[in-house]
Each structure stands twice: as C-alpha cells, then as structure tokens.
Amino acid sequence: MNISHQRDTAHPRVRGTERSLARRAELIAIGRKLFADTSYDALSMDDIARQAQVAKGLIYYYFQSKRGYYLAIIKDSVADLVTYAASGLQLPPVDRVHRTIDSYLRYAEHNQAAYRTIVSGGVGFDAEVHAIRDGVREAIVATIAEGAYGRSDIAPLARMGLLAWVCSVEGAALDWIDRPELSRDVMCELLVKSLGGAMRAIEELDPAYPAPQPARRDT
C-alpha cells in the first residue's frame, strides 16, 4: 500500500518539475530575444513582463530578480556558443577553427548587448559575469588547442599564447559590431590568419608546440 501510494504521488511531482523546467526555458528564450540588442539597464521588470506577456511575479518566481533573469539568459546563450564551438570533431582542424571563429562572430553579431556585457564584465565588477567570460575564454582555448595540438592540456606558454589571441578577438569583435565595415567572412579570415601568427610565435618560444601545417609560412 505504501509503495503504491509513493508511486501515485511521485508522478505529479515529476510532471510538475517538467512543466517548471519547460516554463523556465520558455522565459529564457523570450529573454534572449528581448535582450539581444537591448542593454540590461534599458529594460525594467515591468517592460520585460509586458513584452513577454507574463505576470512580473512569474519572472521573480523562477529567477528571484532582474539580475538573476539576465544572468540565466546569458548563461543559456553562452552555453549554446560553447557547445557549438566544441563540436565538429570530425572536421579537419583548419575547418574546425573557421567554424569556431565564425560561430563566435555570429554570436557577437546577433547578441550585441549580451556580448558587450560578457566582455566588459557587466555593470561595475560582476563576479558572475566575469566567471561566464572566463569560461568562454577557456572553452575557446581548449577547442583551438585540441584542433592544433591534439589535446587541451597544454603547457602554460602555449595556453597563454592562445589566451592572448582570444582576448584580442574579444576587442576586435567589440569594435566590429560597433563599426561593421568588414563582412563576417573577411573578419573571420583575418582572425584565422592572426591565430596562425600566434601559433608560430608559440612554436618559436616552445618547439614542443609546432604550428599546424596550415599556419606555417612555407605552405
């Protein structure tokens, strides 16, 4: 009898959890559209609730605050970027690099407000936004290292060389979305070639990390 009762009461909880997760995901999807090109400060909770056509209390229920809602939106969109960048293992290394950089630029282009928040660190010093930014950096470094050297656990010098390149990409992408004078294809090719330069510098300082063939000057 007790076992039967436990089974009967478990199912509503499971269904309730599934509905809650689905509702939360729906609110995040709505928020991603709202904040794609609108800064954090430009939208009040009343604005968000009105445009999302939901009660303001529902957003507070799932995310506790406007900041909690915004962080959840950023984490969700960045997770898509990182997952996409880390996929495509079947592609040749040079194609995977192009794919990773192109997806990064697409994210910056189509999520300009969120991208500015991530790269700048949020309003003032926001430790959680900094952690998100650092996670993206490390994921891109790991993806490039895996394609270039066949592993992501690389020596400090090689890691720093790739990290310096990633940080330069952030600054270049920020300027590009403000002044989109170059096409995304040209911008991607420029960043790929600058990565080749970074890899040649890494090889010069640490021969244990030779630049991949497409990055060499003699090809």
Mean pLDDT: 83
How many beta-strand segments? Answer: 0
Which residues form runs of ≥5 with pLDDT under 50? 1-10
Globally, the shape reads elongated
Give the radius of gyration.
21 Å
Q: Cα distance, first to last residue?
A: 76 Å
Strand content: under 5%
Q: Number of DSSP helices?
A: 9
Helicity, as a percent range: over 70%
Q: Class by helix and strand content?
A: mainly alpha
Topology pattern, helix = H, strand = E: HHHHHHHHH
Largest sheet properties: none
Which descriptors apply to this entry?
single chain; 219 residues; mainly alpha
Structure description:
It is a single chain. The protein is mainly alpha-helical and 219 residues long. The protein contains nine helices and no strands. It has helices at 2-34, 45-52, 56-63, 66-86, 93-110, 112-120, 127-149, 156-178, 184-205. Helix 4 packs antiparallel against helix 5 (93-110) and helix 4 (66-86) packs parallel to helix 7. It is elongated and about 60 Å long. The chain starts with a helix and ends in a 14-residue tail after the last helix. Mean pLDDT is 83; it is low at 1-10.
Task: Please summarize what this structure is.
The protein has 219 residues and is mainly alpha-helical.
Mind sketching the topology for me?
Elements: H1 2-34, H2 45-52, H3 56-63, H4 66-86, H5 93-110, H6 112-120, H7 127-149, H8 156-178, H9 184-205
